[in-house]
């Protein structure tokens, strides 16, 4: 799960990025509204954490522009503007939730999980493919009902594959979902994670599609 954090305050930005990375998210951080728009053009993020008072383009303006263009990505506004009028403005501009600074990192990650659960109005957020079940909100994975402990990257990789069972993803697509910009990708990292997932989930859990990439077989 790759998130875009838009925050110009270096202390808050660094602490949010660090906190959410510890929770297993891939977090890209930009410091102004214009950089956020550039980042979003890549369409690799699944949620935006948006400060409102930003250089180069105000958060509200950015958000309103996204919604005008029909971009439905979930947006959690994080801001010091705590007056009722400002909250209403944020929600009117298309925010899905609102968190007022200063906030606790635990509350932030709870809000992120809640927003993910609500995304697309799915009643059952757990993804099930054959004996595998993955809960994107809690990061829990079970195999035939038994919990499996995965690292952050193993989880992200499995999540990317389970979202589209039966559809192979190329190595480049997998790397895109696993790594933020400033994170260096080791050349054989994807193979290493696949190997480790197969060891934990069984050799057949992830199939190699020759010349294409990897997939979780549908209904395996
Ligand atoms: Ca700010």
How is this fold's topology laid out?
Layout: E1 2-6, H1 10-22, E2 26-30, H2 33-40, E3 47-50, H3 59-68, E4 75-79, H4 84-92, E5 97-100, H5 105-118, E6 127-129, E7 132-135, E8 140-143, E9 146-148, H6 152-162, H7 171-178, H8 189-201, E10 207-209, E11 213-215
Parallel strand pairs: 1-2, 1-3, 3-4, 4-5
Antiparallel strand pairs: 6-7, 7-8, 8-9, 10-11
Helix pairs in contact: 6-8
The protein binds calcium ion (CA).
Calcium ion binds at residues 8-9, 51, 53-54.
What does it look like?
- The structure is a single chain.
- The chain has 220 residues and is an alpha/beta fold.
- 39% of the residues lie in helices and 20% in strands.
- The chain is built from eight helices and eleven strands.
- The protein has a five-stranded parallel beta sheet with strand order 2-1-3-4-5, sandwiched between helices. Strands 6-7-8-9 form a four-stranded antiparallel beta sheet, with helices on one face.
- A hairpin with a 2-residue loop joins strand 6 and strand 7 (132-135).
- Helix 6 packs across helix 8.
- The longest helix has 14 residues, at 105-118.
- The structure holds calcium ion (CA).
- Residues 8-9, 51, 53-54 line the site of calcium ion.
């Amino acid at each position: 799960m790759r998130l875009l954090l838009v925050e110009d305050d270096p202390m808050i930005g660094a602490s949010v990025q660090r906190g959410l990375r510890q929770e297993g998210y891939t977090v890209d951080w930009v410091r102004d509204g214009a950089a956020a728009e550039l980042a979003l053009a890549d369409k690799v993020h699944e949620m935006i954490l948006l400060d409102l008072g930003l250089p180069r383009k105000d958060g509200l303006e950015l958000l309103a522009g996204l919604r005008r263009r029909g971009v439905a990505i979930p947006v959690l506004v994080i801001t010091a503007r705590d007056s009722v009028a400002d909250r209403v403005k944020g929600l009117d501009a298309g925010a899905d939730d609102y968190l007022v600074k200063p906030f606790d990192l635990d509350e932030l990650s709870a809000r992120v999980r809640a927003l993910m659960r609500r995304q697309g109005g799915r009643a059952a957020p757990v993804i099930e493919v054959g004996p595998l079940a993955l809960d994107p909100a809690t990061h829990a994975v079970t195999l035939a009902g038994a919990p499996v402990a995965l690292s952050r990257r193993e989880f992200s990789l499995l999540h990317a594959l389970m979202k589209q069972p039966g559809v192979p993803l190329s190595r480049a697509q997998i790397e895109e979902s696993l790594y933020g910009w400033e994170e260096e990708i080791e050349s054989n990292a994807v193979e290493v994670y696949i190997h480790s997932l197969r060891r934990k989930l069984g050799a057949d859990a992830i199939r190699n599609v020759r010349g294409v990439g990897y997939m979780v077989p549908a209904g395996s």
